[in-house]
Amino acid sequence: MAMTRGHAAHTAARSGLLNCHGCRLLIRRPSAAGQMHVRCPRCGTRLHLRKPNSIARTWAFLIAAMIFYIPANLFPVTITTYLGSTQSDTIMSGVIFFMQTGSWGIALIIFVASIVVPIAKLIVLMGLLLSVQRRSHWRPAERTRLYRITELVGRWSMLDVFVVTVLVALVRLGYLTTIEAGSGVVYFAAVVVITMIAAMTFDPRLIWDALEKNDESPAH
Amino acid sequence: MNHLPTEPAVDEPIPEPEVLRGKRFSIVWLIPLLAMLIGVWLVVKTIRETGPTITIVFKSAEGLVPGKTEIKYKDVTVGKVQRIQLSENLSQVLVSAAMSPEVAAHLTGDTLFWIVRARLAVGEVSGISTLLSGAYIGMMPGRSGKVVDRFEGSEKPPAIFLDTPGRQFNLRAEQLGSLDIGSPVYYRQVKVGRVTNVNMAEDGTSLLLEIFVEAPYHRQVKRDSRFYNASGLDMKIGADGVRIDMPSLASLLVGGISFFTAEDIKTTPPPAESQIFTLYDNRDVANAASYSYREYYLLYFEETVRGLSAGAPVDFYGIKIGEVVSIRLLFDQDTLTFRIPVLIAIEPDRIELSGELAIPEYEVMEKLVEKGLRAQQRTGNLLTGQSYVSLRIQSEAEPQDIRMGDVYPVLPTIPNTVEEIAATAKRLLDRFNHLPLEETLEDIREAARQVTDMTGSKALESAIDNIDQSFATFKKVTSDLNDGTLPKVNRMLDQAKASLARGEEALATANTVLGEGAPIAYNLNRLLLELQEAARAVEALADYLERHPDAIVFGKGNQE
To answer: Considering only alpha carbons, which residue of chain B is nearest residue A80?
Structure first.
């Protein structure tokens, strides 16, 4: 990709062609590229040059994720009943608990997986969207790599949710100790899932569109 | 994999796609909208679930953990401790707690908070669950008053919850024995309440106990109910053997109070609001102390009270209705006189009423004093000089009112009987003084002279002659009686003697027939013995037949 950074890159769009992402059939781009939907003549897959409505959709998911991020951090994720006394922990209080008890490794893992990664994802996606909307020419290759990492790493934020579900299922010692999932887990899982969808709806090709000379607005 | 994009298909005419009319509506924006709605709902819910924050002052925060310790009412969590701080002068602990909104309206000034820890006491084990879960704060919502946000917490749970129906009573005790706050109160050996508070009287002479008797048993406490310390074992060895009085085992260990109401002809009224009962040491003492409700009055005597002592009876129409409590000597600086205030206690329950009391009790005495009720010191025993206080109604007494002293109402008094006698004697002597003695002596002398004159007269001599004749006639009559009548009577007596001798003979004969060793009696005895044996044999037969009814048919058979 870095090699093809040049302006005169050969892309399907430039050649007036479309690639069916169902059967990979190369199709000529329709001349009347308005608000039209295009179907592959061979397999019937809907065709579009770029992911449809990518920026708006990504924004929508991003905003939803940001809203859910607040209760995800304010509400407890685990409610531990230990010998009759209950204690509810949010993500951050759990991190602090592990830090205070000396388990720096676990604290770090939880901190990175549950706090750093979601925030980073939100920020990265927001940055990408803004840069695309502003038709920025700034370091498209790095931005694309950032996107790839974001998409790759997103699912690992579910780690926290898995930990909670496993704990809830395993720690059922009756009166001694019980762990229950707090409502925060639901919102946190929502944040993770929605940011993953947001990353999927974002089309990295938009980063490169801005670089192309013929300022042809890409069809959806 | 057959149709790789690298296939040289570029030369072939690239097919035109099908073109469809697109619809321009993106439902993707519903997602952030939904998120927004959820967010708003969460905010509203959180705000609605947030109750007031209150501060509870405790002496110590032992066992309290911020963010963890809960506040419970009836074991339902109604709040949570958020922060624990020391007061500015470091003497107290300020516990801030977030309360749930449903109890917000009940956090009035009389709300109670206390720390629940495991408590192990004889007769009571509580809060065991806190051993593992840690302490929590118990709460008893207030009943009335303004809602406040600062409360005084106590270390111990209240002995009686505010919503427990019943009534509180006050007792006065000489000593506490094994009683303590929480000690049970029994009525007919049923636990009906407990001691809620123990205080020393201000002057240190006695202890004041507050007890709470639960409904419906609080109605059993009457004005003349008697409370006694039911702790411990009461053992007595007396003429009727050993007697052991033992309450329930728990009260044997932790002590307790029992009460009873003496059986009486009339129904006793419920106790007065401010009545203080006496707590007796044991049931016998309580039994002996007959009337526990007393009214106190002060009497001022101005004469000697020699012979009057504390405990001397106060009587009314000769019936004891109370006793003297104390006697003091009072010197009045202004008038340089001595007065003797005597405190008496009257036990109104000793007086029975015709029907219900129509006017308040304190007015009864006022009315009686208006009618002439006076107190008087009287000598009860002339030999020992013991005296007593007598209340009497003197209708001719000059009108006086009952008046209120410093503490006790003062009853008017009248002077001692000795003084009264002296006064009467003086009056008598005065009258003697005024008698016309000289004239009387003159009269007597005159009378004597007239008598002398009479004895010397003729008439007297003839009278004496008449008497002589009468005596002669009498003598004749008696000699007649001697000669005629007496011999007949003698004969009659002889005959009676003979018949008695014959009767005696007949009795002797009877004796030989019926007496001991007589054949008839012996035979009768034999007969009775044989009859007894026969009855026994019949009884044995009946018994055997009952067990072996077939013996009638088959005979007695073997031993089997």
So the answer is: B68
Q: What are B415-461's pLDDT values in tens digits? A: 776 666 776 777 788 887 777 777 888 888 888 887 777 666 666 66
**Cα–Cα–Cα angle for B239, B240, B245, rounded to 5 degrees:** 115
Q: What's the rounded Cα separation, in Å, for the pair A159 and A165?
A: 10
A125, with CB counted inside 10 A (0-12, 13-18, 19+), is: buried
**B68 Cβ contact partners less than 8 Å away, ≥ 6 residues apart:** A85, A86, A87, B80, B81, B134
For residue B171, the cross-strand partners are B209, B277
pLDDT digits (tens, 9 = 90+) for B177-202: 778 777 888 888 888 888 888 888 78
Assigned token pair, B180: 């303590």
Q: Which two tokens stand for residue B257?
A: 């109070």
CB atoms near residue A194 (< 10 Å): 24
| Look-up of token digits 């302006």 | A7
| Distance of alpha carbon B227 from alpha carbon B174, whole angstroms | 13
Quote the domain boundaries for residue B112.
Answer: 49-154
Tokens of B438: 């000289």
- Structural domains in chain B (count): 4
Residue A126: the pLDDT is 92
**B19 found inside a domain:** no
> CB-based contact (8 Å) between A87 and chain B?
yes
Q: How far is A147 from chain B (nearest CA, A)?
A: 21
Is some CB atom of chain A closer than 8 A to the CB atom of B15? yes
The answer to whether B229 and B257 have CB atoms below 8 angstroms apart is yes
Q: Check pLDDT > 70 for residue B523.
A: yes
> ipTM value of the model?
0.73
Which residues are paired to B154 by β-bridges?
B114
Q: Which of A24, A63, A85 is the best mutation test for B, with the most CBs of B within 10 A?
A: A85
| Distance set, CA A91 to CA A94, A106, A182, B428 (Å) | 5, 12, 10, 114
* B337: helix, strand or coil: strand
pLDDT of residue A123: 92
Can you give the C-alpha Rg of chain B in angstroms? 52
CB contact (8 A) between residue B38 and residue A27: no
For B50, list phi and psi in degrees, rounded to 5: -85, 120
> DSSP class of residue A30?
P
Whole-number percent of chain B with pLDDT over 70: 77
Instruction: Tell me the pLDDT of chain B averaged across its residues.
Output: 78
Q: Which of B415, B439, B472 delimits the end of a domain?
A: B415
B133 and B190 both lie in a single domain = no
Q: Is B132 on the interface with A (CB under 8 A)?
A: yes
Contact check, Cβ <8 Å, A38/B38: no
Helix, coil or strand: residue B104: helix
Q: How many CB pairs under 8 A join A and B?
A: 100
Residue B254 identity: V
Domains for chain A: give ranges and CATH numbers: 1-49 (no CATH), 53-209 (1.20.140)
Which of B392, B302, B395, B309 is closest to B344 using CA atoms? B309
Burial class (CB in 10 A: 0-12, 13-18, 19+), B263: exposed
DSSP string, B383-410: TT--EEEEEEE-TTSPP---EE-SSSEE
Alpha carbon of A31: minimum distance to chain B alpha carbons (Å): 10
Q: Are residues B80 and B138 in the same domain?
A: yes
CA distance B451 to A2: 183
Judging contacts by C-beta atoms under 8 Å, the chain A residues touching residue B24 are 35
Alpha carbon distance A182, A79 (integer Å): 6
Strand order in the sheet with A78-82: A85-89, A78-82, A177-181
Together in a domain, B210 and B276:
yes
Between B520 and B372, the more confident residue is: B372
Of B16, B31, B39, the CB nearest to A28: B16
